[in-house]
TrEMBL record:
<dbReference type="InterPro" id="IPR052542">
    <property type="entry name" value="Cholesterol_Oxidase"/>
</dbReference>
<keyword id="KW-0285">Flavoprotein</keyword>
<keyword id="KW-0274">FAD</keyword>
<protein>
    <recommendedName>
        <fullName>Esterase</fullName>
    </recommendedName>
</protein>
<comment type="similarity">
    <text>Belongs to the GMC oxidoreductase family.</text>
</comment>
<keyword id="KW-0560">Oxidoreductase</keyword>
<dbReference type="InterPro" id="IPR029058">
    <property type="entry name" value="AB_hydrolase_fold"/>
</dbReference>
<dbReference type="GO" id="GO:0016491">
    <property type="term" value="F:oxidoreductase activity"/>
</dbReference>
Length: 369
């Protein structure tokens, strides 16, 4: 088997998007900005297609240990491309979890307090648009939900959240595996990294690679198998192989890398509490987060794959119920949709997602407000 080259240096490989039929997409731009604590972040911006009535900005938030490029697999018409074709100004944020940025031992709190308020402010300043909409995924959804529920994103009016939000829950085997991993491998390394399957640099990395080789035989892609080991329980965990074309399955080898153990420790705390809990003592995050009413008027649509092996679909239904339990009388209620045949990340990478998933997201984001 050919071993892929090491992941590229940050932003050296541009995003190449496949256009919807008959549509000429503008080039992807890079826009740098500074988080509230001085951390340097950036956007990959895709402006709306020329001649299409503008619908305003939408921010896309990736999960942990990946980057903005993850929304742009090579073999399909992507969600950013479809949003641009529909008139949206698309801002794919590389928040501090991005593998394109300097590694740090961050928590959800850091992104909630420092990254997303600065990101929304930057979008509003550059676009001169009063409001922003958002598509958020996985740990990016956790951090974003923590931020918006704390009242830090009043300019965000519409959110589509995938896989998990306020009330994470995992499969029983994963709930057993995570504390064991924290007590063993988590003491040997500060980062878990699917790239260990290609380049294990330490004793802990070699141990992880051995464990993956022993337990995962579902495919020959080392990064795919290590991602399954890192992010839960499943063969694979993050998607169904039947939903990925061969090009996307090869491409993911360069799209997954370092995730700090600090994030997994906080995730464990959230799973025990059955809702998001802060790891820092930032005054901006309320003590009763996940219990008191979310401090936002934004309308959410919570989505998940029915075959999700990373976070259980029932957890997303619980987030939907939690937000709806705090909707004032007469206000629009939040939405929920479960997609049959999909898992965690194939909601964005699936070879048929442009037909079966993305049109729904474009429609929801096109609604007022």
């Amino acid at each position: 088997m050919n071993v892929p080259a090491a992941p590229p240096d940050p932003l050296q490989t541009d995003i190449v998007l496949r256009s919807p039929a008959g549509v000429r997409l503008p080039p992807v731009e890079t826009v740098w900005f500074t988080a509230g604590d001085g951390f340097r972040l950036n956007f990959r911006r895709l402006r709306p297609v020329d001649g299409v009535p503008p619908r305003g900005p939408v921010m896309m938030v990736h999960g942990a240990g990946v980057r903005a490029n993850l929304f742009c697999p090579p073999g399909i018409v992507t969600l950013p491309a479809m949003l641009s074709a529909a008139g949206f100004d698309v801002w794919m944020v590389n928040w501090r979890a991005s593998i394109d940025l300097e590694p740090s031992e961050y928590t959800l709190d850091d992104a909630a307090v420092f990254d997303f308020p600065a990101a929304v402010s930057t979008i509003r300043e550059i676009t001169e648009h009063d409001t922003v909409k958002a598509v958020v995924h996985c740990q990016g959804s956790h951090a974003f939900t923590m931020s918006i529920a704390s009242g830090l994103l009043p300019e965000v009016t519409r959110v589509v959240a995938n896989s998990t939000a306020m009330t994470p829950k995992v499969r029983r085997a994963a709930a057993i595996k995570l504390p064991l991993a924290m007590a063993t491998l988590g003491r040997l390394t500060n980062f878990f990294d699917p790239q260990f399957g290609l380049y294990p640099p330490s004793f802990a990395a070699k141990v992880m690679d051995f464990m993956v080789d022993v337990t995962h035989h579902e495919c020959r892609n080392k990064v795919c198998k290590h991602s399954s080991f890192v992010y839960g329980v499943g063969f694979p965990t993050l998607w169904s192989h039947r939903n990925l074309d061969a090009g996307t399955h090869d491409w993911i080898s360069g799209e997954f890398a370092h995730v700090p153990v600090s994030l997994f420790r906080q995730t464990l705390d959230c799973l025990v509490a059955k809702h998001l809990v802060p790891a820092r003592d930032y005054r901006e995050i309320p003590e009763l987060l996940g219990i008191e009413a979310p401090r936002t008027t934004a309308k959410f649509t919570f989505i998940t794959g029915a075959d999700n092996r990373t976070f259980l679909p029932e957890a997303m239904r619980a987030s939907h119920a939690f937000f709806n339990s705090h909707v004032p009388a007469g206000s629009p209620r939040h939405g929920f949709k479960e997609f049959e045949g999909y898992g965690h990340l194939d909601m964005f990478l699936g070879k048929h997602a442009s037909v079966e998933v993305f049109p729904h997201i474009v429609e929801w984001l096109s609604e007022d407000p």
